[in-house]
Give the backbone structure.
Amino acid sequence: MLIKVSDNPIVNTSAKLVAVAIIMFAFVFVVMVPLYDVLCEALGINGKPSGQVYTAVQAKVDESRTVSVQFIATNNDGMPWEFAPTATIMKVHPGAVNGTVFFARNPMPDAMVAQAIPSVSPARAAQYLHKTECFCFNRQPLDGGMSAELPLQFIVDQDIPSDIGTITLSYTIFDVTDMAGSAAIAAR
Amino acid sequence: MGDHHHGPAKGLSRWLFTTNHKDIGTMYLWFSFSMFLLGGFFAMVIRAELFQPGMQLVEPAFFNQMTTLHGLIMVFGAIMPSFVGLANWLIPMMIGAPDMALPRLNNWSFWILPPTFLLLASTLFMEGGAPQAGWTFYAPLSTTYAGPSVTYFIFCIHVLGLSSIMGSINIIATVMNMRAPGMTYMKMPLFVWTWLITAFLLVAVMPVLAGLVTMMLMDVHFGTSFFSAAGGGDPVLFQHIFWFFGHPEVYIIILPAFGVISQIIPAFSRKPLFGYDSMVYATASIAFLSFIVWAHHMYTVGMPLAGELFFMYATMLIAVPTGVKVFNWVSTMWRGSLSFETPMLFSIGFLILFTIGGFTGLMLSIAPADFQYHDSYFVVAHFHYVMVAGAVFSMTAAIYFWLPKWCGRMYNETMGKTHFWISFIGFNIAFFPQHFVGLAGMPRRVPDYALQFADFNMMSSIGAFIYGASQILFLYNVIATIRSGEPVSDEKVWDGAEGLEWTIPTPAPYHTFETPPLVK
């Protein structure tokens, strides 16, 4: 066959199979993990909006349509922060740049670092919700007892299908204080 | 091998240092049977707690440890090693080879298993208890919320994966290089075929499982976030990788069972297997399809419609080659000169019950219906019909079928038939009602349940106790056969049996086929 390691056919077969096993082990890390992220983002599956800052394109504001955007804030298990949207619903026109802020307060005595993870529902609306600025792009540190207003700017794409009248943008806030020392996490 | 014929060494060192495929096969079989009893004991704890609604015997956390260990031990400790043991015993004898291709590796792949499972069982006594995230150990249950024993668990999975990969490499190397002259691929017994394909599946997916637990290890100890949303990871990724391993894994378990049944049914029908070629192609098709259907285990995670449809149709497609097999077995029996010794009874039991399990599998493959069945006792009933009545029944049939050949003594037929009927009846009492409670909404992996499920659960527990007790009879029968069974000396123990393993003397000598036979 293609590769010949030894004159002993048994050693040859075994060597090839060991190679297959090693390749499959690498396949998990090199192919499956990145492919999953790429697919989720490309297809907008899983309600994952793009983690990238959106650069606005020349777009007309479609004043004939109004889309409701709802905001939900959730604390992950054990996360003590107060975390809430200042407006729970906004009625926006596709193409227009909109801004809002989320309120966050660290009630604990010590400084903490938080990371908000967004999710969009319905999932297929994820690709039509563009964020030009989001507190979820970075970790949010807060000293003990301090509060902050976390900004969010977004555009609903003018190509959004006409049957989507309401988009829900949900943020779950995680305590990443322990992780904050390690390498920077992917901005989501 | 030395230049003189020698028998087995004496004492413990025979077993520790042996490179003989028959010795290693025997050790695999005894080890897997002891794991079967241990996993079975855990199942008895589960069924005892579920005997009545309410919490009676164990704490919920301990109950979860029982379900987790029961699954892990049955899959990785009982079923998989038992078929590896069977492969060790039979493949060299079936293809006319003197031993496995890599005998020392063979010794090692066995001997790393017992310490591994000892370690896994010992997690029960650790602080925080054994793993309790279920045998599928989904993140974040197995990462963020796991006890300290998760690290031991990860190590165990690594080692037993290594053992499986080494065992598979050995089997492939043996089958590809050591067949007797004239033994072409399409003349190989089906048991050898199914194991060859299974071994390829193992080499392909056990590293995926190893990769998965490596990611868990890094998430737990080294601050990565493969499965943690807070760090940009995704717990759903865990499920995709797990089932990319896990679905081929279920065929790894069942394909050798298909091979066993394809040897036994022709022997007791006194006819060659119907449709040999189509059996080979069906096995290969099932193996291929097993790689593209994994997400049918996770219809409810929120896949796009196209994904649901793809995985649904691909899964239904598996019913075609599996149907080919079932019809071939039935056609083999058709107008055969049937007799119903214990191995045949277990094979027919397999045929009927596995087909039921296949049908419920087809029901579960329907994506819209699965939203109702998902994570319910219906799933539990389904996979016990294919795992127990499929893999375990065929394994039991195999032991009754080949044991006389191995040890030159016949088992007690009356006791064997009694074992079959108690098993068959006990199994159905245990698992058939679980279809009903599942459809009615009882979730799996719960230590307590709503009152309306009480009757069926009690029935199920009684059936499980009956089935469990029948295995003691089996153990007794096997030991009694080895120690004092009626001697048999016919090379063909069964008049209808065909194949090279029936051409050597009975009991099978320690070394066989040192000169390869010529296959015409």
